[in-house]
Every structure is written in C-alpha cells, then in structure tokens.
Automatic annotation (TrEMBL):
InterPro entries: Methyltransf_25, SAM-dependent_MTases_sf. SUPFAM superfamilies: S-adenosyl-L-methionine-dependent methyltransferases (SSF53335). It comes from the Bacteria. It comes from Clostridium sulfidigenes. Residues 49-147 form the Methyltransferase domain. This is Methyltransferase domain-containing protein.
C-alpha cells in the first residue's frame, strides 16, 4: 500500500546520510559520475530543470553550479531543509526558482510544459507503487515538448547482485532463507513488502524492459537505458582498492563510461537509468 507519510517520515529521519550517499566511497562516486554523464547533454546555463525527489540536493547543487534554473521538489521537509542549507552555503540560491514540498504523484502546483529537463534520480519512483504511472505522467506533463525526462530507479536484478558484493554480510543466510527475505516475491513481481529488518518503506524494484514500457506509455520516445555502476556493479571492495591507483581508477572509469549504456548490461546495475524525449 502506497503510504506517503511513511516515506516522508523515513527521509526526515534519514537526514544528512542522504547527502553522503553519493560521495562516501569510490563505488558511490562511480554512481554519481555516471548519473552526471547521463545528464550532461540536457543541462546548461539558463535551462529550466526540475529536480524531482531531490533529497539533500546532491544534483540540485551541481545544476545550480552549472547555472541552470533549478526547482527542487521532495516529499521530505528535512531533505529540502538540508538541500537549501547546502545551496546557501555555496552561494547558489540565485539559481533556484523554487523549493517545493509535495508528492510526485501530484505536481498540480506546476504548469504544463514548464521545464527543459526533468530529473528524478536516486530511486524516488521505487516508492510510488500503484501511483508510479501517475507520477511519471506528471513528470512528462511539466516537461516542455522536446524536453528530456531522466530517471534512475533501483533495479531488481542489480539489487540482488549487490547483496553478493556486500562485505560483513552473511550471504548464505540471506539466500538460505528466501521466503523470510521475500526473495521469490521480489524475483517474480519486483515488490519488496515492509520487512522487520529493512528500514525502508515498501518498494518496487524495476526491470529495464518494464521501465522502458512505463516511460513510453507515459509519452516519452527515443528511450535510452543505462546501468549504474555497470561493469563494477556489486564489486565494492575491488572498486575501493582500484581507486587508490590513479591509472587503474581512470581505466575503470573509462570502461564504465563505455559500457553503462549498453542495453544488455542495463539490468546489471544497482541503479537503472532511463531517459526519453517528450513528444513534440
Ligand atoms: C534516495 S533519495 C535521492 C535524492 C536525490 N535525487 C539523489 O539522487 O541524490 C530519494 C528521495 O526521494 C524522495 N521521495 C520518495 N518518494 C517521494 C514522493 N512520493 N514524492 C516526492 N519525493 C519522494 C525522498 O524523500 C528522498 O529525498
């Protein structure tokens, strides 16, 4: 059951940890690097950009630094407070058109055809459950014809793969108690119900084809898919070691860039990236 109050309260309590999510480790920084690369051709000075589900503003700040006109939108008042503080600390408020507290399923405060680019990164759509199509239709509605909508969601196969790469984790117990961890349910439906040992609200994990169909049903075309991280998805320890050597790190980043939009690898990434153009 979709419960916006539970999502709000989860992210209000999550606080500053959300700000650190994409910079704490080299592995996280690959995620940030690929998400920015996926976006780079659709942003720039003077563009009107909606950062939908902006969290602590990791992408909003970069967009403001690059002189886009940014509107921040999130269900969590605490995440918006952190984002605003960071924008103020960096003297970037001049690039902010609005900071809006609301639910992605209802963007009625925003007019049709307003933004050049709409970003919904870092898996907000995983929480929308039965309202996900409504939310994507809203993202498309507020985008100008010919503008881009870019999303990233947690991938069903990527998230399962990620469990194998966790350190200090009892994989045998995890895969050995499939029903307790709802593994068959996630594999069959993508749905992870509320679990006593998982702090997140209920989520739906996506497959690449499913996400592509959703975006296309909601009016986007020329859809591109990506996986993030791609080649190194799940390999946290290897990536952390590789970053210590400059050439090894640059080599890995180059391979990530070359591979992450290969269609056959999209489902492998912890995050599934997708972007499409709003029909003219
Ligand atoms: C993991 S954070 C991602 C933040 C940011 N986009 C990033 O990639 O760094 C997910 C954000 O989505 C927001 N969110 C989740 N469900 C939402 C909803 N229904 N409406 C608006 N925001 C939502 C959460 O409050 C949270 O700040």
């Amino acid at each position: 059951m979709y419960n916006p109050n539970e999502i709000k309260s989860f992210y209000n309590n999550y606080g500053e940890r959300e700000w650190q999510r994409l910079e704490l480790t080299p592995y996280d920084r690959i995620n940030y690097y690929l998400h920015m690369d996926f976006l780079k051709d659709y942003i720039g000075e003077g563009k009107k950009v909606l950062d939908a589900g902006c969290g602590a503003g990791r992408f909003s700040i970069e967009l403001a630094k690059l002189k886009n006109r940014v509107t921040l939108f999130d269900i969590s008042t605490e995440q918006l407070r952190i984002a605003e503080d960071k924008l103020k600390e960096n003297n970037l408020m001049a690039y902010v058109d609005g900071i809006i507290n609301g639910d992605l399923a209802d963007l009625s405060m925003l007019e049709d055809n307003t933004f050049d680019t709409v970003i919904c990164y870092g898996a907000p759509l995983n929480y929308l459950l039965g309202n996900v199509e409504k939310a994507v239709r809203e993202l498309v509605r507020v985008t100008k014809p010919g503008g881009q909508v870019l999303v990233s969601v947690n991938s069903k196969w990527g998230v399962i793969r990620t469990q194998l790469g966790r350190e200090d984790f009892d994989y045998v117990s995890f895969f050995g108690k499939p029903n307790y961890w709802y593994i068959p349910e996630v594999v069959e439906t993508g749905n992870l119900p509320k679990h006593e040992l998982v702090s997140h609200p209920e989520r739906h994990f996506f497959e690449a084809e499913e996400l592509e169909d959703l975006l296309s049903t909601c009016g986007l075309e020329n859809i591109t898919l990506g996986g993030s991280p791609c080649i190194s998805s799940g390999f946290r320890k290897a990536v952390n070691d590789i970053e210590k050597d400059k050439i090894a790190w640059e080599t890995l980043l180059e391979i990530e860039l070359k591979s992450y939009c290969k269609r056959t690898l999209a489902d492998n990434g912890e995050f599934l990236l997708a972007r499409g153009v709003k029909m003219e």
